[in-house]
Amino acid sequence: MSDDPCIFCEIVAGRAPAARIYEDDEVLVFLDLYPTARGHTLVIPKVHYENLFEADEDSLMAVTRVARRGAHALRNAIRPDGMTVVQLNGAAAGQTVFHYHVHLIPRHHGDNLKIHGRRTAERSELETQASEIAAAFATTGDA
Ligand SMILES: [Zn+2]
Question: Catalytic site residue 101?
Fold first, then answer.
């Protein structure tokens, strides 16, 4: 474990910026700063654990419940052809931030995407997208 502050814990605490979409007591949803597609969204637990192997079941269930709702919200907001939902465990698997997170990546036919983008997104663009998806989230129930 590193002593460096975890960037996702910093976002949860409000000490680092993020284009936030949704949060409840256990889960935070925000746009990936290195998007590989428009609307590339991350769903994280507010408590820190590195990966699936350290996660407690209740927290995983909370993240999964919100990820499902987020996928519906993204589908309503962005109208993709499909949705990649992926979660990486360990550097060998491509994990780059060691705080559990689920990627929701809107997909379009022929996009040929990688999981991680190659450039930082424009902050204003992310904020606009976050507002659109948050509006869809608000009208997308748990059921
Ligand atoms: Zn963390």
Answer: yes
